[in-house]
Amino acid sequence: MILIGASGHAKVILDILEKNEFTVDYLLDANPNIKELAGYNVIEDKDHIDDINQEYIVSIGSNLIRKRVSEQRKVKFGWAIHPDSILGDDVSIGQGTVVMAGAIINPSTQVGNHCIINTSASIDHDCEIADYVHISPSATLCGTIEVGEGTHIGAGATIIPNLKIGKWATIGAGAVVIKDVPDYAVVVGNPGRIIKIGNGEE
Ligand SMILES: CC(=O)SCCNC(=O)CCNC(=O)[C@H](O)C(C)(C)COP(=O)(O)OP(=O)(O)OC[C@H]1O[C@@H](n2cnc3c(N)ncnc32)[C@H](O)[C@@H]1OP(=O)(O)O
């Protein structure tokens, strides 16, 4: 396995991969000054030749940059699923997605490619999570919620059932979302209110 991005987020992924007894050969990073992370070699991601015999994970927290980097590579992407996460029956997890410790994903939920389901996040039944979404630590998604591409659900946010959250939206930490959220909206507070319409740049 090779990770792209040598950050704090990568450290958490390395920890999951170690617990699953995967071998990580090295990490790549655009910053030539980073040589090491958590005991692993970091190589400058310049003129890197994609290794078709390896699996990669893009270990970059920004949803937009993770999308850009993953689209540039012609490689196979793997998964990192913490052994202390709980996945219900009929849950599907897309390639490049990481699921942190304590996360719970209940039955019939679909999670797209290159998502982050962070520590102790709870995603209930029949949710549809599109590609490049980040569900932050301790966020709660009730049943039958759709989350569009690239959206970031902040730490500890709660979304009541049957809602549709648009693409490239941001839900602030601790928000309580009680109605649908349009694309690119930034929502904070309880009850959640739109404070601006962003441009998808995090
Ligand atoms: C392992 C990890 O670390 S995973 C990372 C998890 N990260 C998160 O959960 C971060 C989530 N991000 C937030 O909550 C951010 O505050 C955002 C994205 C909602 C807003 O950020 P910005 O666009 O920079 O907004 P800014 O800080 O200028 O605040 C704008 C207004 O919204 C308010 N506001 C911002 N965030 C929140 C929030 N979470 N709840 C309530 N109000 C908020 C501010 O007080 C401010 O109000 P004012 O205009 O009355 O002064």
UniProtKB/TrEMBL annotation:
Protein residues bound to acetyl-CoA: H134
Domain PglD N-terminal intervals: 2-72
GO molecular function: acyltransferase activity
Keyword Transferase: yes
Enzyme active site: H125 (proton acceptor)
Keywords linked to the UniProt accession: Acyltransferase, Repeat, Transferase
Record has Transferase as a keyword: yes
NCBIfam families attached to this UniProt entry: NeuD_NnaD
Name of the molecule in the record: Acetyltransferase
